[in-house]
Specification:
Blueprint (H helix, E strand, L loop, with lengths): L5 E5 L3 H11 L4 E5 L2 H10 L5 E5 L7 H10 L8 E5 L4 H9 L4 E4 L4 H32 L9 H18 L3 E5 L6 E3 L2 H6 L10 H6 L3 H16 L4 E9 L5 E12 L5 E10 L1 H50 L6 H31 L9 E4 H15 L4 E7 L3 E4 L1 H17 L6 E8 L4 E8 L6 H4 L24 H11 L3 E7 L3 E9 L9 H9 L1
Length: about 550
């Protein structure tokens, strides 16, 4: 059984690294690094992995810079690199490919897509390394044979020695054919890898031709004959070869043709590699990609349903409730009922907005953001005023320090704050205080903290708290206001879209604090045009 590909992951976010681990562990062996310099040092001292997965934005050395250094090294110049990025502009993609990245995946990513892309890169890398090994074996076999008229004994001895050494060094079926006599000599690989008993193997080319698949035979035989009769020194072909048990193996057969001074073929040395498992892996990759595309199509249909069939009726309900609230002769009971309708409609509207954001994020497009110059302190202050109205019986304390000016999407920042404060309210006692801190830092970024003194988050839940459909411990008094478990996932998606990070600390003594860190300038472009309609309607 083939060993799973070895993948090195560079990501400083524990939550992101855990998401990558959960996506790739079923099919890969993982080693995780949090620092680019440490990864490069490991590359210098240890055998290289099959694939590097690099987060673009990192403190210190970025993933893009690590990619450039990897491409400059002779031993790592061809090592496959996949970049994880929130950047969706065409210019950013061009920059990534120019730096040497082989592929990229937008964050937040879909696990199946990341798995398919990484396994495809690993498969191609293993094939490339196998080709290098075959080339080394070929050179061992052919070296010295082009020198004209060497002593016959020495030539025969060198040829036999190199042939046997190559047969031991490779897991392929290595063969040698003399076009002048027609004799074919096979190594034990034909027995070990294709299941033929030594007594059934014949030393003629006709025996090999008989075991080619009928649909491939004419093409393969004609191609080899043409290569030998021309001045070519190389031949390679893919075809189906019958195993000893009658089943068919997909093989890659490649050889080197040695010629004398007159250009006549005097020796053909090749290696036949069974790539059936590789083809099955490729078929599985294509199946996974088809599944991803089918899921994306379904989610796009879901966006249409939610956008038109649910959001519009809710708008009508909200409008009607607003009109009823203005009725001058409504009694106290009627006013309470109207307020209940308004709160329920607002909550349903927020759930639909979360579902829309979730669907966009899972499609790999990232959430649309519209950054513009704003003051974080002003946006937080206004958002807290609205939240205080929604939670009139709870205390919210706020603190503002430093320079809060930067380029962010104010609506999305308010959405992050609303989700975090709502989460803090839901998972803390009614008589406790929720604290919000907005702080501008001298290092160039800003920090937003939301703290509550509720029960600590369990360790098993903490590692996946930012995953979709995950909720904290449910309390009986919260059942009427239970969320669908997308709030923190959307918080992380919005923060990542701004090039920032979010993490959580939670202990029995200190309570729970969510910390958002944002650069002062969002490193992404505006959202695509087709997203603007959704935002305007929301």
């Amino acid at each position: 059984m083939q060993v799973a590909p070895l993948v090195w992951v560079l990501d400083d976010s524990p939550a992101e690294a855990e998401a990558i681990r959960r996506a790739l562990t079923p099919v890969c062996r993982l080693v995780t690094f949090t620092d680019g310099a440490a990864l490069l040092e490991a590359l210098r001292q240890r055998p290289a992995p099959d694939v590097l997965v690099l987060d673009w934005y990192l403190p210190g050395m970025t993933g893009l810079e690590v990619c450039r250094v990897v491409r400059q090294g002779a031993a790592t110049a061809l090592l496959p690199v996949l970049l994880l990025t929130v950047n969706t502009r065409a210019d950013d993609v061009v920059e990534a490919m120019a730096a040497g990245a082989n592929d990229y995946v937008f964050k937040p990513f879909r696990p199946l897509e990341l798995q398919a892309r990484v396994t495809a890169l690993a498969s191609h890398e293993r094939k490339r390394r196998q080709q290098l090994e075959d080339e080394r074996a070929r050179r061992l076999l052919a070296e010295g044979t082009l020198t004209e008229m060497q002593a016959a004994e020495e030539r025969a001895w060198r040829s036999e020695l190199r042939f046997r050494l190559a047969a031991r060094a490779t897991r392929d079926a290595v063969w040698e054919w003399d076009p002048r006599t027609g004799a074919v000599d096979w190594t034990s690989g034909l027995h070990e890898h294709f299941g033929y008993a030594s007594s059934t193997i014949r030393d003629t080319r006709a025996w090999w031709e008989e075991r080619l698949h009928p649909e491939d035979r004419e093409r393969v035989v004609r191609g080899l004959r043409l290569a030998v009769s021309s001045q070519s020194h190389e031949w390679q072909e893919n075809y189906r070869f019958q195993r000893g048990d009658g089943t068919w193996a997909h093989v890659v057969d490649r050889c080197h043709i040695v010629r004398d001074t007159e250009g006549q073929a005097v020796q053909v040395v090749g290696a036949m590699q069974d790539v059936t498992e590789m083809q099955q892996t490729e078929s599985e990759r294509l199946r996974l990609l088809a599944e991803v595309h089918a899921q994306a199509d379904f989610e796009r249909q879901l966006i249409g349903i939610v956008s038109h069939d649910l959001r519009n009726p809710l708008g009508a309900i909200t409008l009607a409730a607003s009109l009823l609230a203005q009725t001058p002769d409504a009694d106290e009971r009627q006013q309470r009922n109207v307020q209940r309708i308004q709160r329920a409609a607002d909550r349903a509207t927020r759930m639909i907005r979360d579902l829309l954001d979730f669907t966009r994020a899972r499609q790999g497009r990232g959430l649309p953001v519209y950054p513009r110059l704003m003051d974080l302190h002003e946006v937080v202050h206004a958002a807290l005023d609205e939240l205080q109205v929604a939670w009139p019986d709870r205390r919210i304390l706020s603190e503002y320090t430093g320079n809060g000016v930067g380029q962010w999407d104010p609506d999305r920042v308010a959405q992050v704050l609303g989700n975090l404060v709502g989460n803090a309210m839901q998972y803390s006692a009614p008589d406790t205080v929720v604290r919000v801190v907005a702080r501008g830092e001298d290092s160039g970024g800003v920090v937003l903290e939301v703290h509550n003194q509720g029960m600590p988050i369990p360790l098993d839940l903490k590692s996946r708290i930012f995953e979709p459909l995950e909720r904290g411990l449910e309390r009986p008094e919260d059942r009427g206001m239970r969320s669908i478990g997308l709030g923190l996932y959307i918080v992380r998606s919005i923060v990542v879209a701004h090039g920032g990070t979010v993490d959580v600390r939670s202990t029995q003594d200190d309570g729970t604090t969510f910390t958002v860190r944002l650069p002062r300038q969002t490193p992404v472009t505006l959202a695509p045009q087709d997203d603007k309609g959704d935002k305007a309607a929301g």
